[in-house]
Amino acid sequence: MKRFSKTVVFVLILFGILSITLQAAAASAFRYEAESWQLYRLGLFAGRSRDKFDPDLGATLDRQTGVTLFLNFFGKTPEVNRLSDDETERIMSGYADNGSILPWARKYMAYAVKTGMIVGTSADTLSPGQPLNGLASAAMILREMGFTIEREDYFNSIRIFCGKTGLGPADIEYFSKPGLIKDDAVGMLHAALFAECSNGNTLICNFINSGIVPAETAMELELVKYEDLGIIFPQEGGYAPPERPAGYQQAYNQVYDALFNGNDSIWLIKNEYTDTKDKIKDIIITCIRENPEILYYSGFTYRSDGLLTLKYSKDRQTILNHRSELEKKIAKILSEIIRPGMTPYQKEKAVHDFLVSNCEYDMEGYNKGNISPESYTAYGALCLGKAVCEGYAKAAYLLLNRVGVETIIITGISKGYSHSWNLVKLDGQYYHLDITWDDTIQYEENKDIRYYYFNLDDATISRDHEWDRAGYPACTSKKYEYYTYNNLIVKNQDEFVDRVIEEVKNGNRSITLKVQDTRGFDINTAADEIVSKLQISCRHLYNNILGVVMIA
Asked: Quick check: is 213 in a domain?
């Protein structure tokens, strides 16, 4: 993994406790529910289980539980497990109360003593069952970040911690508790990700550099963006999940976790958002649309007792293998096509050009009426080089969002068929991007890259696209439309002829222009006039729907 020289910050947002036995509350039950979900996805927090999201945020923390939680967060478990039993007992023998340490916490406590993370409640006691307070938590976290917290600094540890993490007076008061619950600890750990460690890097930067947190996962969660070569930066404004009712979000999190891991069944929380099959279907569809890294979902069944069974077109191991291959491919592609100093527009064009040049539409599957499951995915588009519109749109979504260009997937109808494409946000304005229809497989005469559907507004793309406008942001700007941005617009046929003649005289033998007013525009008449005036032959390709002419 490349080392990142710039500071990296994650804004981590946790989601709430998932219970299949309780009705979802109308509002969050804990202060840091949203953050726990992100920490879980990053592999920094397990809650009660590493197999499913069960954060148990209301659980009280004693010192041995807190030490274990913090060391897991800092990625120290492998080092803990390397302690021999003999060394563990030698370390513990110095403390009179070591017999009260629970077996599962024994090595964690020994490691914490050995490394100086904890110094004990006295010279010969560790008080493992004593409630964990805010002062001790802040001191332990700071020590793991490389700072020295002596006994005389202990009572200022929360102020020191909040100063380094950018938290305010209200947070100092909030965390100054005689006994923490797991929710409080998660909040402190989340804040620590923003802080600069003793080595000058933020904690999350250190996590990425050491391999504790995969950069790909952080970018997949849209917590950071890829900028230049080998450097990632925080997303502007941080991560902001969709504002949804807590009950809906709880069900969404369950569904996502299952689909992402290729699980075939879960006990879905019962609430007003899961009380009909149609509502459950909506959650699943939304989850898949917003997370193109989910592969090969094919359907579901639901029982009244809450058992949701998910179906896939591939087995679980294939799903996991393909997603791993996809992540590696994304990283490789971005390292090749993204250059230092690129603007968002240039990044978008680089992604567009890569997909047009390296992916082909699955015409064979389409013509046979037997499109492969891979062709509907980003894996098909990027790893196999073959996809249908859904695969193109998902690939663009993943690549663009990874480099900080906000992108969503839009579905509708184009040219009489169900269709998927993208909306891209540049300078606060959305534009339509349809890479599928720009792919040269559609055109036999010329294999040059087209930009017919590159950053169109609603009015222009609606000539051959339909969609539910109420469900997506409006696209009204023409600023970054390809032909406008590159000064390739002419008003009418006369201007077209004059501009082509001018370009040819300047040595340009391949010209693409967009005609604003196509009423009365006749490409054959225009071409004849150009040939007559220049005394040369030419060939041309005219998109009469969008008014774009390629002439050479």
From this structure: yes
